[in-house]
Design the sequence.
């Protein structure tokens, strides 16, 4: 295949520059792959990979979907042939309803307003011509809106020598999106700064802030981080969707979860130290907040110390650390300790000082919650030891650790699996489910994400505590692990598999990345 026949010289140039960039950071890619990522060219056998294509082809909107059929609305009814073709593509029967043209147009345009193709077309136009400020603003809002609708967690704009690259992080994975020229990227940066009310002129030092926007009926918060880099400003926009992220404890650990009852008991103690740990983007703050919201907020004095405050929680006093006015983590903690708290939640223990302060608070009869950046529950203990945390206090106050990461959940269109792989691997009597694909999941077969956890709970009896302390001291914690209440990543994966929430492929790749060896 000769790329010169497929791509324009400009597109080849862009691909080559990116290729050069990838080589410099050690990522293996070829030009065709890059061209495909940018939609410069498309694979020939194009499957209905995006529901929007179908909506545009047949001009309809979906009003509702049940087990057997899609209920769709259109301007005029489809003939029997087209109807049959659509039913085949959707894999379900279709029930049509005609709606007035104006009503249809309104609904149709709302959907199309977040059509990535239209956004891309607009960006291409904007890249080549000078545009009015309000048009740039509209485009920027479209990009945000598209992100909100598609459950994007972050929008990244990175500046390279000749262009900026706009990418989405969706379900934990980075998706290449659009190329912006320097001018457009700069105008986006100004919009972000103006909205967040931060210094417009400053391009020399990192700045952070936030703003909110109304989309449809919801008010969405965005947190932003802008920092100078060699070729321009890097912008990260985090989408904070409250409805999506402020979850209740029972949503994360429903009754049928094997650990639900015991966890509930351990996170509701009067004093102790409880950690949620995991890498960035693993949802540990969401879990921490879920734990806080199920405490008795009307009868307990609860404080949080955060940087930044991500979600507002009613009846909880939340402090924002602000280094620039010397309201540091340590001063905030000192102040909180004088305010007679029952429960203290510390956003994240980033350094030695915060670990020491948290341990001290736990030791003085409070219930302390915090998060740490480690892979599993065992590593959390190692990390605290490493930072010189008092092992005596740790051994006698730690109530438990939830280590977690997010894994892709199967969409409701899943089908029972007939493969024995999962059944054998998990030594289960169930076959589990596998993905299929439907309009709702963009034919990916996957929906939102769910928690894969590694939990350890430390029973309070003196004998266990003493053994735990000695083991911590002698660096032999694993030898007493069996005396604790544990629920490993493997057990958690087995549970997700048997409940039909995740498929074997997703779970095995996650377990392998966590260091579990496939014994089969
Ligand atoms: Zn689906």
Sequence:
């Amino acid at each position: 295949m000769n790329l010169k026949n497929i791509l324009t010289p400009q597109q080849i140039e862009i691909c080559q520059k990116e290729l050069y960039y990838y080589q410099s950071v050690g990522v293996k890619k070829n030009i065709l792959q890059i061209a495909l990522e940018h939609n410069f060219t498309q694979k020939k056998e194009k499957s209905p990979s995006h529901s929007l294509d179908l909506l545009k082809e047949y001009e309809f909107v979906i009003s509702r979907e049940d087990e057997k059929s899609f209920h769709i609305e259109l301007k005029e009814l489809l003939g029997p042939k087209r109807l049959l073709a659509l039913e085949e593509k959707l894999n379900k029967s279709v029930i049509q309803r005609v709606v007035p043209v104006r009503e249809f147009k309104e609904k149709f345009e709302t959907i199309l307003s977040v059509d990535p193709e239209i956004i891309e077309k607009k960006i291409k136009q904007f890249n080549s011509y000078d545009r009015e400020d309000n048009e740039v603003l509209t485009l920027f809002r479209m990009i945000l809106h598209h992100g909100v609708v598609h459950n994007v967690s972050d929008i990244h704009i990175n500046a390279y020598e000749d262009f900026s690259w706009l990418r989405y992080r969706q379900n934990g994975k980075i998706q290449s999106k659009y190329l912006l020229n320097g001018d457009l990227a700069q105008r986006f940066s100004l919009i972000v700064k103006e909205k967040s009310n931060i210094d417009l002129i400053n391009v020399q030092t990192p700045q952070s802030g936030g703003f909110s926007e109304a989309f449809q009926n919801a008010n969405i918060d965005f947190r932003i981080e802008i920092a100078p880099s060699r070729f321009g400003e890097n912008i990260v926009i985090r989408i904070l969707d409250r409805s999506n992220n402020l979850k209740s404890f029972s949503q994360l650990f429903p009754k049928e979860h094997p650990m639900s009852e015991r966890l509930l008991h351990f996170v509701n103690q009067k004093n102790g130290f409880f950690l949620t740990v995991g890498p960035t983007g693993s949802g540990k703050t969401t879990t921490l907040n879920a734990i806080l919201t199920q405490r008795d907020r009307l009868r307990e004095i609860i404080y949080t110390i955060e940087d930044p405050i991500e979600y507002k929680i009613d009846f909880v006093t939340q402090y924002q650390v602000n280094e620039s006015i010397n309201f540091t983590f340590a001063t905030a903690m000192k102040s909180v300790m004088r305010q007679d708290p029952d429960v203290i939640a510390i956003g994240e223990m980033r350094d030695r000082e915060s670990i020491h302060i948290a341990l001290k608070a736990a030791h003085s009869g409070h219930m302390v919650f915090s998060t740490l950046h480690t892979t599993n529950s065992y590593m959390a203990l190692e990390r605290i030891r490493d930072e010189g945390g008092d092992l005596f206090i740790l051994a006698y106050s730690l109530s438990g650790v939830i280590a977690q990461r997010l894994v892709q959940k199967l969409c409701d269109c899943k089908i029972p699996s007939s493969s024995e792989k999962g059944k054998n691997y998990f030594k289960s009597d169930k076959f589990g489910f596998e993905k299929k694909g439907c309009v709702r999941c963009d034919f990916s077969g996957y929906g939102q994400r769910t928690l894969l956890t590694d939990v350890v709970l430390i029973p309070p009896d003196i004998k266990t505590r003493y053994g735990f302390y000695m083991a911590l001291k002698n660096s032999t914690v694993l030898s007493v692990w069996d005396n604790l209440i544990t629920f490993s990543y493997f057990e958690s994966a087995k549970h997700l598999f048997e409940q039909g929430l995740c498929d074997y492929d997703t779970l095995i790749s996650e377990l392998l990345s966590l260091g579990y060896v496939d014994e089969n």
In short: The pocket of zinc ion is lined by residues 411, 413, 437-438, 440-441 (CB under 6 Å). The longest helix spans residues 133-149.
